[in-house]
Amino acid sequence: MVRAAGSTRFLQETVPAPQELGIPLIGVPEGSPVDLEVSLEAVHEGIFVSGTAQVHLVGECSRCLDPLAYDQEVDLMQMFFFASPEQGDGTEDQDDEVRLVENDTVDLEPVLRDAVVTALPFQPVCREDCAGLCSECGVRLADHPGHHHEVLDPRWAALSALTQETDQ
């Protein structure tokens, strides 16, 4: 990478997905292709990386447990410093981890991981109106729209026992 401020290099590449790129219900399968389109711009302090990554997500619906699979594009943006920023330059207040250029290379895996995982839905669903599963017996509610159970409030259970005694 040329360190001359203002120089830019464009990178368009497909790389295998690293392991554990996701959350328990949804994520990118390890080794699946990740399409990167990034711009690496040399600035005075380091290299500014920006671009996008196209990933294929696989998982299951959090309501009905049906399988999910779809593509998602995430934005990548990170500053890589040539040297650790010094105290007093305004960067110590940031919550972001400072990333460094090492041996004239940048490691995009942590940037990719941060972008993909934060873009994932906390509770993925197969469709917005997914009814899910019955909490009593586990039947898929989309297949049985009128499904329900007679559930007696436990506070009334003692009175229910009295009515059953008088019926006998």
Report what the structure shows:
The protein is mainly beta. It is 13% helix and 34% strand. Strands 1, 2, 3, 4, 5, 6 and 7 form a seven-stranded mixed β-sheet that branches. A hairpin with a 2-residue loop joins β2 (21-23) and β3 (26-28). The protein is elongated.
Summarize it:
Strands 1, 2, 3, 4, 5, 6 and 7 form a seven-stranded mixed sheet that branches. 13% of the residues lie in helices and 34% in strands. The protein has two helices and seven strands, in the order E-E-E-E-E-E-E-H-H.
- The stretches of 5 or more residues where confidence is low (pLDDT under 50) are none
Terminal Cα span: 89 Å
Please state the overall shape, judged from the principal axes of the Cα atoms: elongated
The overall average pLDDT, rounded, is 86
Beta-sheet strand percentage?
25-35%
Largest sheet: 7 strands, mixed
Structural class by secondary-structure content = mainly beta
How do the SSEs run, as a string of H and E? EEEEEEEHH
Indicate the radius of gyration in whole angstroms: 26 Å
Helix content: 10-25%
Question: Oligomer, anyone?
Answer: single chain
The number of helical segments is 2
Instruction: Give a count of the beta strands, DSSP E runs of length 2 or more.
Output: 7
